[in-house]
Amino acid sequence: MKFLVVSDIHGSADYTKKALEAYALHKPDQILLLGDILYHGPRNPLPQGYNPQEVVALLNPLADKTIAVRGNCDAEVDLMLLPFAVEDSAVIAADGLRIVAQHGHHLPSCPPIPGVRPGDVVLSGHTHIPRGETVDGVHFWNPGSTTLPKGGFPASYGVFEAGAFRVFGLDGRFLLEHRPSAA
What we know:
This protein has 183 residues and is an alpha/beta fold.
C-alpha cells in the first residue's frame, strides 16, 4: 500500500496544487490528510493563495481515495464543505504496521499514549515539523506542513510505501526516511 501524507494545508489553494503535483508524481493508492485543511487558524498568517473553496474543489476528485483526520483549526462548518469524512482519528493497517493517524494536538510527543502500543506508528501533523523516529518502541512520523512549515524546514509532505516513511520538500528534495523494522 502506498500513501501520500499531507498535513496542515490551512486553506492554501497554491500549496494544495503543489501537493497534488506530488500525488501525480508518486501515484499513491490513497491520500492521508492529517488535519488543518481549510482554515489558516488565528495564530497563523494568512497563507499564500488562501482560498478554502478552491481547496475543496481541488480535493473533490480524490474523495474516494482520501482518509482525513480533523485538526485543531478544522471547524464543523468548514468540514461540511468537504466531499469525504473527516474523523478524529484513523487506524490503518498497512505493510504489517498498525498506524494511528491523528492531527497531533491531543497527543504527547512520547509514550505512553493511550491506545498505542510498542510497534505502532503514530502519524500526525500539527507541529509543522517533519519527524521520523522511534521512542520506547513507538514510531513517530510527521510529514511537516505543506503550507506553513516551521523550524527552518521547507514546505513538505510524506510518502509511506513498503514499510518506510519518507518526507520530501515540495521542491522534490529528500528530507528524511524512517523504517520501523530498522529502528
